[in-house]
Amino acid sequence: MDRLCIVATGGTIDKIYFDDKSDYQIGEPQIGNILRELGVNFQFSVIPILRKDSLHVSDEDRELLRATIAAQEAKHVLVTHGTDTMVATAKVLSAISDKTIVLTGALSPARFRGSDAEFNVGCAVGAVQCLPAGVYIAMNGRIWDPHKVRKNVAANRFEPID
Prior knowledge:
By secondary structure, this protein is of the alpha/beta class. It is built from four helices and ten strands, in the order βββαβαβαβαββββ. The strands form three sheets. It has a six-stranded mixed beta sheet with strand order 4-1-5-6-7-8, sandwiched between helices. It is globular and about 45 Å long. The mean pLDDT is 93.
């Protein structure tokens, strides 16, 4: 992997909470800070194209994401995305056949102590370097085929589709 292309769309990983009512905004992408703090030994670039909770990601947003990734020279792409509609976005990105694309996010904001963000990003970085071309989801310590996984909202985790 010469250089990792990261496309940030927002989601919980980038959320900033302001008060007890859970009012939030999507802040700057956190993945660059995470990778720098971890001292990674590869070059990366971050393209922030959206700042949305994934429940607000539209079909037009998914098309923008698909076109942005398709236009990149990089063959390895990591996408940070909200977890609620990550699977739907991954399915749209499946139209890109010549790149390895891994979507990841967090179930709690990267700014929170004990967040799963660093763990998920680490899994995604390893996966994007090792897997063949295709689209994958890296969440909860596993690599998922987007056609065989769902988010279990009640349990707050990803799980295989029976």
